[in-house]
């Protein structure tokens, strides 16, 4: 099963992915956690370029191609082999991010980006996407708190430095995707208590994991 997590900056994806990983470990279910941009040696190098505010002059078209490049490497090197091995793959962002960010926020033609996603992923789509939704102000406040704690690290803050109207477009884009693909995308209120969110995610996912025949969860 291929599970992706999406949401604006500061929505709580990384925290909830960690909780889910701990849950699956306790249930002895085989899984991997990966992320975009990143997930491979090449992808992690591209991540530094894409997320650093030192590259504030990056053109939107450059950004789009770099995301597709890291995704193509990621799918072939990590995701498909793990799925073929019977593992649950949990990915922090995937192709929906390109629709939300590059189409709805940057203004690229949706047909173009969908075609590029199709090529980069070799047609792979997530089985389930968990969209953690929260107001832009809440997400940005959380994100900036996280970034401020990265004093001795390369700060991944290029997107956080975009104006709020950009982030509102991203959020609206994600919610539009969710409305159009209700069978695949579940929207979870990211403003709730972390443990409550985790329970809601598990309550939604576990029956579907059982149906997929990956394992019996007790």
What report would you give on this structure?
The protein is of the alpha/beta class and 218 residues long. 56% of the residues lie in helices and 12% in strands. A 5-stranded parallel β-sheet has the order 2-3-1-4-5, with helices on both faces. Helix 1 (13-26) crosses helix 8, helix 2 (41-51) packs antiparallel against helix 3 (60-84) and helix 4 packs across helix 7 (164-180). The chain is globular. Residues 214-218 have low confidence and may be disordered.
Which segments are poorly predicted (pLDDT under 50) over 5 or more consecutive residues?
Answer: 214-218
Which strands sit side by side, in order, in the main sheet?
2-3-1-4-5
Strand content: 5-15%
Tell me which oligomeric state these chains represent. Answer: single chain
Roughly how many Å is the radius of gyration?
Answer: 17 Å
State the secondary-structure class. Answer: alpha/beta
């Amino acid at each position: 099963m291929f599970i992706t997590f999406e949401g604006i900056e500061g929505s709580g994806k990384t925290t909830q992915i960690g909780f889910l990983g701990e849950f699956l470990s306790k249930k002895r279910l085989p899984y991997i956690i990966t992320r975009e941009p990143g997930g491979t040696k090449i992808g992690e190098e591209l991540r530094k370029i894409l997320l650093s505010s030192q590259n504030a002059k990056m053109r939107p078209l450059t950004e789009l191609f770099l995301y597709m490049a890291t995704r193509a490497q990621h799918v072939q090197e990590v995701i498909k082999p793990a799925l073929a091995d019977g593992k649950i793959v949990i990915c922090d962002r995937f192709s929906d991010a390109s629709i939300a960010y590059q189409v709805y926020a940057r203004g690229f033609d949706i047909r173009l980006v969908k075609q590029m996603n199709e090529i980069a992923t070799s047609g792979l789509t997530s089985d389930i996407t968990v969209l953690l939704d929260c107001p832009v102000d809440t997400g940005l406040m959380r994100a900036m708190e996280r970034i401020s704690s990265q004093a001795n690290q390369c700060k991944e803050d290029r997107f956080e430095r975009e104006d709020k109207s950009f982030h509102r477009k991203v959020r609206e884009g994600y919610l539009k995707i969710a409305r159009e693909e209700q069978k695949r995308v579940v929207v979870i209120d990211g403003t709730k208590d972390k443990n409550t969110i985790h329970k809601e995610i598990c309550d939604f996912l576990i029956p579907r994991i059982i149906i997929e025949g990956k394992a019996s969860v007790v």
